Amino acid sequence: MAKRRQLTVEQRSAICTLRVEGYTRHRETNSNQDRKRSGRPKSTTIAEDNFIIVTSKRNRRLTAPAITAALNESRQTPVSTSTVKGRLLSAELRGCVAVKKPKLTARHKQNRLKWAKHHINWSIKKWNKVFWTDESKFEIYGSNRRVFVRRQKQERTIEVCMVPMVWGCFGNKRPDNDPKHSSKLRKTYLLEKKRDRTIEITDWPSQSPDFPPIELVWDELDRRVKSRSPTSAKQLWQYLEEE
């Protein structure tokens, strides 16, 4: 029978130590599993995490780099933008395109609801008789089509996460508060057409540019023209006619 290899003093000490530790762990936890390790410590404190979230909620249009810069002003060791993005995602604050909305007063909202209830039972045949008209602006440079904000999933339609639409030098050609749309000449012309039943004027709630479906057409037309990169007003008009 072969002679057994003797354990060294170091090996015996290790066995005794492990046995003692294992026994202690089992007695404390009633398990032989390893204790949960803390892992790598976070680079930001709880207060700094709260600062990131509160800063984003105070101004929904702040980008992650801007929030990072504000945070690093009070830190000796700067954190990265990816760290800030991670804290925002942990709070379910994701970058999204802001929902466009008109700037509405309580009266505007009441009139819009009244109009919607009045037309709720209109048939498709009746809607097909409606002639939609509108005005829009087109620019050679820049675009105001999309604005990014950071919000939680359920915050899509809260005011701070939306873009107000303010009508100024352009507006709906249907009856509204625009002076050129309520001029005496225009009213006289439409009243004459209404008398001979050529045109039937439909009441239209003010501050409701999002109602007409033609708004979707303007958006698509703007994208197509922008993709062709016009460099002059003449070329812009040419592309608008072609599209």
UniProtKB/TrEMBL annotation:
Q: Which domain of life is it from?
A: Eukaryota
- Coiled-coil ranges per the record? none
Any one GO MF annotation of this record: DNA binding
Q: Which Pfam families match?
A: HTH_Tnp_Tc3_2 (PF01498)
In the record, biological process GO terms are: DNA integration; DNA transposition
Q: Which residues form the Transposase Tc1-like domain?
A: 52-121
Which PANTHER family did the record assign? SI:DKEY-77F5.3 (PTHR23022:SF135), TRANSPOSABLE ELEMENT-RELATED (PTHR23022)
- What protein name is recorded for this chain? Transposase Tc1-like domain-containing protein
Q: Which organism is it from?
A: Ignelater luminosus
